[in-house]
Amino acid sequence: MTLEAWYTNESEEDQRLPHHRDPNEYVPLAKLAELGVLYWRLDPKNYENDEELQKIRDAKGYNYMDLLDLCPGKVENYEEKLKNFFTEHIHADDEIRYCLEGSGYFDVRDKEDRWIRIWIKEGDMIVLPGGIYHRFTLDTSDYIKLMRLFVGEPVWTAYNRPQEEHPARKEYIKLLGQGAVPLEAH
């Protein structure tokens, strides 16, 4: 099983729905890589002893890790938090998420400012580069268990759009223009 991604329609329906265009317009991993989105398929049942995960963490300097169960009943003000996660924003640093259970959607903007929906499921690990406009929501399963990784101390600050003058956004746009976003992972 590989990561699924597609261009979304602009429907205002429930954000937890797939929002496929008609006809469906899937996006290959290579297109995500062009945007700087990295992807690995790992073994979520063995995350505590996974040598591949440890190699990635060592190579990237991901020294901080925590786990988040996101679902009704486990998160205070669940609906409000989900709305906040779905507000378009950037971060100064990369956003690294590894899905251990459940599923959800990360939406990212492409070079033409169109939404691409990335459906992460158990075993998927993605890195969204600092400065990329994105948002997150659960799918209709209403459950995801994520490992969150950081370089150094975790920074949770989201900068809602527009952020064209933010240093991370400027650096991201510069790298996109040079075709210099990192193209590693698998």
What does this structure look like?
This protein has 186 residues and is α+β, with helices and mostly antiparallel strands. The protein has helices spanning 29-34, 51-60, 78-85, 167-178; strands spanning 4-7, 38-41, 64-70, 89-90, 95-109, 115-121, 124-128, 134-138, 144-150, 159-160. The strands form two sheets. Strands 1, 2, 3, 5, 6, 7, 8 and 9 form an eight-stranded antiparallel β-sheet that branches. The longest helix is centred in the last third of the chain and has 12 residues, at 167-178. It is globular and about 40 Å long. The protein starts with a strand and ends in an 8-residue tail after the last helix. 24% of the residues are buried.
What are the low-pLDDT stretches, counting only 5+ consecutive residues below 50?
A: none
Topology order in helix (H) and strand (E) letters: EHEHEHEEEEEEEH
The number of strands is 10
Q: What does the average pLDDT come to?
A: 93
Helix count from the secondary structure assignment = 4
As a percent range, the share of helical residues equals: 10-25%
Gap between N and C termini, in Å?
13 Å
**Global Rg:** 16 Å
Q: What does the overall shape look like?
A: globular
Note the main sheet. 8 strands, antiparallel
Structural class: alpha+beta
